[in-house]
UniProtKB/TrEMBL annotation:
Organism annotation: Ceratopteris richardii
Protein's recorded name: Pentatricopeptide repeat-containing protein
Pfam families named in the record: PPR (PF01535), PPR_2 (PF13041)
GO biological process, any: RNA modification
Superkingdom of origin organism: Eukaryota
Keyword entries, A-Z: Repeat
Coiled-coil blocks: none
PPR repeats: 142-176, 244-278, 279-313, 346-380, 448-482, 550-584, 652-686, 754-788, 856-890, 958-992, 1060-1094, 1131-1165
Lineage summary: Eukaryota, Viridiplantae, Streptophyta, Embryophyta, Tracheophyta
A molecular function GO annotation: RNA binding
InterPro entries hit by this protein: PPR_At4g14850-like_plant (IPR046960), PPR_rpt (IPR002885), TPR-like_helical_dom_sf (IPR011990)
PROSITE patterns: PPR
């Protein structure tokens, strides 16, 4: 009895009074192991969960008694004990003891009898490898064993292995029971094996297993729902005799998981109609459904129900579901309140709130939540860190992201969670730290397509398309297969760098994998790639072969057409899309509006505007508002553009930029500045585009002070150092304001320079006649390793032409030929022709013109303009004929040069012919310059009636046209007609300008009409025209001087606010006319004391005065000083004055010598020399001079 009580104490010590009672009463009359074996067997089958202490008891028995005695016990009892022990181990999942029993079974040679029990034990303990090995060897035909193994595979997430066991059962004709079917249905649902699931469903129906088996029915509902066969799931539900809350919840959960929130809520309504009360799981699924469809009102009602039933108090899962629902619906304040009211919340609860903040772009608040969560004593998990890293990416909080990276690394999460690793790569990529993103990716212990997608996308978004494609290749080299998102990112990279051939390769791979059939996003990416690469036909072809083309696809195509100037096609596509029943998105409307703006199609744009208004899209859509303002501005309807802008509920810098640019493009500069000031008054900050427009305005209107203010603002914000385009705009403004020093200084102070900013500076120097500075900039640019482009070369050729630097021009010509640029750029060819023409090297200009692969009207105009400047009228006419023979029609500029030549040479017949051509080609319509050219031509030819007819027939009543007519009368000596013309002009209400008054003053001077001149002078003074116009001041002085009113002339000269050399020339001319030569020399000295330099006309008067006074030495001194001191080359008039001076005092030898020194003595010289010979009786020289006269 002592032994028995010892055994009893072992068991009692371990498992308490109940077993103690059983053992005491059942074993008290037996000594083990004989009949005691049978009793232990019975206890094991009755109390399987207590197998562990009984196994210890059996070991104790065998220790105290010989194992042989146990081996000799009844075989049936012994087998039953082992089976019972295995069952007990399975029940409590005690794998360690199970293995020891297995070893004991092997020693006893009982493996065959116990194999099924062993397989079940291993399966239920999760040792699937051991269970599978035994199953493979013993090929069990026991339904329970197969079911146990199937259940274990399903539990372990190895659904396919579970279905493999089912296939084995079918081959062995082992019919599944209810439990088997439940497990198999779970496997089918997880794999979405709808066909296999239906097969099991049919088996269940055939065998009638569904009757009164709600658990099996629920499994069927879950399987069909997970496979997306909701109709079948609902059918099963309806066939259940008494569906319970789990049945309904299963279907609701499936709807919620598949994003079918509306259906989930409808299912709940049916559940309530059938008087089935929801449980906490049901409410959890319903809240998930509300969150998925943003059904906040429904979610709040469920919240009230939950609170009413008191389910929320101690259920953290339900509380978390509430937080998640509110967060997904954007009710983040309520989500926060729910979390605060929860008595207990865990990491998942905080994750739901943090995720909500992230999804609604409140990254800073998400980061604050992380700190609060830590303050609650909770440690972030992988999901938390992934959300926070996403928050950092959304607000570019790189410093916080780096801190999180360190925290993650310290916790070793990078090795445990690929989600966190991917989030880190994505954060660095979105923050622009691409090198760090790549480094992080390569350090990850495991990489997948998501890891690479983040990096590829980051490179693409930051303009590094080539590196994105390198990553795409490296990813594949690592054996990672691109998914649809990867292909979409790679296609975007191709589009960004114009890599159409690579894009085509990717397209072919997508087709090979059959991905276009079901993925419209990928189709849209293909269309977008081809559109951005300019291969619009291919983009349209992709759209046509897509099974379904959505609004994104159409928008990409429309945007591509608009981007590459095919705006009419863009609008055709837009109409076609609408005809197919696809509603445009705001982005589609924006693309269409852009096309309207480019075309100037205001009517179509207004129709689109009406459609946008009708759909109510303009209320809060800044993008559409900007597009509308931009469209109206480009169409020139600036009033409408401003009206749209003022009605926008939200105005941005972009929409103001569009309006400011519109005013700038249409030269309404004051309005542009007004908009800029109004934009600032609304608290909006200008961006680089705003400043570029305003700088352009300042340059156009000469607003130097405003320009300087803008420059200070730009420098204050450090924008010049970041944006080379803005710096270029500033340089351009300075050049237009003639502040070339500041322009040069701006360029030199920049940390980096490109070809565009150098070209702008070179163009500025060239336009202001600073060719030498232009050359210096050109050389400095090249010394910095910056290669000139076509525009640079064109500017420098213009500089060469302006100073007739043909040698420098030839060097540029050689460089252009060497680089092969002349064959591709007609602008450069034209610039080269223009340069040679301006340098009067017409032979070379003609040679270049003939060698050009293509010629246009500007090519010929460049040559014709050069010839016209040199008054080579016949050559101009020949060029015009050859140009027309070349199939190129003259334009308005061509005819202006030709008409000028006709007027200058009196070629009236040709002029009339060209007039007829101009009328035939309707070139006079809205072209005032052509009309003025015709007036000038007819006036110079003396055909004043024709000139007046042009004025009357074409309503050319502007001041310049009248000036040309008046100038024509003056040129032909018709001074009275000129005065009459002036009076007619005034009578028709046309106000004379400074040029008109200068002409009429000349008329008054020629006629000696001092009274009329005085009246004109008063009008000029009343209008304040003398303040800034030196030319007009000179004309007044000249008029009074020619009329003999020298005192008045001198008085006017002294009172002029702006004096120049011509003003003094007028006085000196009057003095010569009166014979007051001494005063001329005095006047010259006074002029020099005023700091003014003489010009050629000044020396004509001075030499004339010296000649009349007989001051030949002084005359000779002035003559030589022209070249040596003032850089003036003596002309025919100056030689004539000197010869006259020598002749007057009898120095005929010196007169003859100077005549011979002249390159070409004009006809004016010989009569002067003959007169001197007659005066001094020098027959020999007289005969020589007479021969030249003849």
């Amino acid at each position: 009895m002592t032994r028995r009580f010892a055994h009893e104490r072992v068991v009692t010590k371990c498992y308490g009074s109940r077993i103690q009672f059983v053992l005491h009463h059942r074993l008290s009359v037996y000594d083990p192991p004989e009949d005691g074996h049978r009793i232990i067997k019975q206890i094991l089958w009755s109390y399987g969960s207590y197998a562990a202490p009984l196994f210890d008891y059996m070991e104790l028995i065998q220790t105290e008694r010989e194992r042989t005695q146990f081996g000799g016990a009844n075989a049936a009892d012994r087998d039953a004990i082992f089976l019972a022990l295995l069952r007990g181990c399975a029940n409590i999942k005690d794998l360690r003891r199970g293995i020891r029993i297995h070893e004991n079974i092997l020693r006893q040679g009982l493996l065959e009898k116990c194999s099924d029990a062993l397989i079940c034990m291993y399966a239920r303990c999760g040792a699937l490898e051991e269970a599978t090995d035994l199953f493979e060897v013993h090929k069990s035909r026991d339904i329970f064993t197969c079911t146990a193994l199937i259940a274990a595979y399903v539990q372990a997430g190895q659904a396919q292995h579970a279905l493999d066991i089912f296939d084995y059962m079918q081959r062995e004709c082992l019919p599944p029971n209810e439990v088997t079917c439940v497990c198999l249905l779970k496997a089918c649902g997880s794999l979405q094996e709808a066909v296999k699931g239906q097969e099991i469903h049919d088996e269940v129906l055939r065998r009638g297993l569904l009757r009164n088996n709600v658990k099996l029915g629920n499994a069927l509902i879950a399987m069909h729902a997970k496979c997306g066969a909701f109709a079948k799931a609902e059918q099963v539900l309806s066939q259940l005799q008494v569906p319970n809350v789990i049945s309904w919840t299963t279907l609701i959960s499936a709807y919620a998981d598949h994003g079918k929130g509306e259906e989930a809520l409808m299912c709940y309504e049916q559940m309530r109609y059938n008087n089935v009360a929801a449980n906490t799981v049901t409410f959890t699924c319903l809240l998930k459904a509300c969150g998925s469809i943003k059904a906040l009102d429904k979610g709040e009602k469920f919240h009230d129900e939950i609170a009413k039933e008191g389910l929320f108090l101690d259920n953290v899962v339900l509380g978390t579901a509430l937080v998640d629902m509110y967060a997904k619906c954007g009710a983040l304040v309520k989500a926060c309140h729910v979390l605060e009211d929860m008595p207990v919340h865990n990491v998942i609860t905080w994750n739901a709130l943090i995720s909500g903040y992230v999804e609604h772009n409140e990254g800073e608040q998400a980061i604050r939540c992380l700190e609060q969560m830590k303050g609650d004593g909770l440690s972030p998990d992988a999901v938390t860190f992934a959300c926070i890293l996403k928050a950092c990416a959304s607000i570019c909080a790189l410093d916080i992201g780096v801190r999180i990276h360190n925290e993650v690394a310290n916790q070793g999460l990078l090795y445990d969670s690929i989600i966190v690793g991917n989030a880190l790569v994505d954060m660095y990529a979105k923050c622009g730290a691409l090198s760090k993103a790549r480094e992080t990716l390569l350090e990850l212990p495991e990489r997948n397509s998501i890891s690479w997608n983040s990096l590829i996308s980051g490179y693409t978004e930051h303009g590094e398309g080539a590196k994105a494609l390198d990553c795409f290749e490296q990813m594949q080299q690592e054996g990672i297969t691109p998914v649809a998102v990867t292909f979409a990112c790679a296609l975007k990279a191709c589009g960004s760098i114009g890599a159409v051939y690579k894009g085509e390769d990717i397209h072919n791979e997508i087709i090979r994998q059959g991905l276009l059939k079901d993925d419209v996003v990928l189709g849209a990416a293909l269309i977008d790639m081809y559109a951005k690469c300019g291969v619009i036909a291919k983009a349209r072809q992709v759209l046509e072969v897509l099974p379904v083309g959505d609004v994104v696809c159409w928008t990409s195509l429309i945007g591509g057409y608009a981007e590459f100037g095919q705006d009419e096609e863009a609008l055709v596509c837009f109409e076609l899309m609408e005809s197919e029943g696809i509603s445009p998105s705001p982005l589609t409307f924006s693309c269409a509006l852009r096309a309207c703006g480019n075309l100037g199609a205001a009517d179509t744009g207004e129709k689109i505007h009406n459609a946008i208004t009708k759909q109510g899209l303009l209320a809060n859509n800044v993008l559409l508002g900007n597009a509308l303002v931009d469209m109206y501005a480009k169409c020139g309807n600036l009033a409408k553009a401003r009206q749209v802008l003022e009605k926008l509920s939200v105005r941005s810098t972009v929409c103001w930029n569009a309006l400011i640019l519109g005013y700038t493009e249409h030269r309404e500069f004051d309005q542009a500045l007004n908009c800029f000031d109004q934009m600032l008054s609304e608290g909006l900050f200008p961006d680089e585009a705003t400043y570029m427009c305003i700088l352009r305005v300042c340059g156009s209107i000469g607003a130097a002070e405003k320009g300087e203010q803008i420059c200070e603002e730009i420098q204050k914000h450090g924008l010049l150092q970041k944006d080379i385009m803005l710096a270029t705009a500033l340089v351009d403004m300075y050049t237009k304001l003639h502040l070339l020093g500041k322009a040069q200084q701006t360029v030199e102070e920049l940390p980096f320079r490109d070809v565009f900013i150098w070209t702008t500076l070179i163009a500025g120097h060239t336009d202001h006649g600073e060719a030498k500075l232009a050359f210096e900039c050109f050389e400095k640019m090249q010394s910095e390793g910056i290669s000139p482009d076509g525009v640079t070369f064109a500017c420098i050729l213009k500089a060469c032409g302006s100073i007739r630097a043909v040698d420098q021009g030839q060097i540029i010509h050689y460089e252009l030929a060497k680089q092969g640029l002349l064959g591709t750029d007609i602008t450069l060819g034209n610039a080269l022709v223009d340069m040679y023409a301006k340098c009067s090297d017409f032979k070379k200009a003609w040679q270049v013109l003939e060698e050009l692969a293509t010629r246009d009207v500007q090519t010929w105009n460049s040559l014709i303009a050069g010839l016209a400047v040199q008054e080579k009228a016949e050559d101009v006419f020949i060029c015009l004929e050859q140009m027309q023979d070349d199939g190129i029609l003259p334009n308005a500029e061509t005819y202006l040069y030709v008409l000028r030549m006709c007027g200058n040479t009196g070629a009236l017949t040709k002029g009339a012919k060209y007039h007829a051509e101009i009328i035939e080609r309707k070139l006079m319509d809205n072209n005032v310059l052509i009309s003025m050219g015709l007036v000038d031509m007819y006036a110079k030819c003396g055909m004043f009636s024709h000139a007046k007819e042009v004025l009357q027939n074409y309503s050319v009543y502007d001041v310049p046209s009248w000036n040309l007519l008046i100038a024509g009368y003056i040129e032909h000596g018709e001074c009275m007609q000129a005065l009459t013309c002036f009076e007619q002009m005034e009578s028709e209400g046309i106000c004379p300008n400074a040029a008109t008054f200068a002409l009429i003053l000349k008329v008054c001077g020629n006629l000696g009409a001092v009274c009329k001149g005085e009246i004109i002078f008063r009008k000029i003074a009343e209008q304040g025209l003398l303040q800034n116009d030196a030319v007009l001041g000179s004309a007044v002085v000249d008029m009074f001087a020619k009329c003999g009113a020298l005192n008045k002339a001198h008085q006017v000269l002294q009172e002029l606010p702006v004096q120049d050399t011509n003003s003094w020339n007028g006085i000196m001319g009057g003095m010569i006319q009166r014979g007051d030569c001494i005063q001329v020399l005095t006047c010259f000295e006074q002029m020099q004391s005023e700091g003014l330099s003489p010009n050629a006309m000044t020396f004509t008067y001075i030499l004339n005065a010296c000649s009349r006074l007989g001051l030949i030495e002084k005359a000779q001194m002035y003559f030589f000083s022209m070249k040596s001191k003032y850089g003036l080359t003596p002309e025919l008039e100056h030689y004539s004055c000197m010869i006259d001076a020598f002749g007057r005092v009898g120095h005929l030898d010196r007169a003859v010598k100077m005549t011979k020194e002249m390159t070409s003595a004009g006809k004016e010289v010989w009569p002067i020399l003959l007169g001197a010979c007659r005066k001094w009786g020098d027959v020999e020289v007289g005969e020589w001079a007479f021969e030249h006269v003849l």
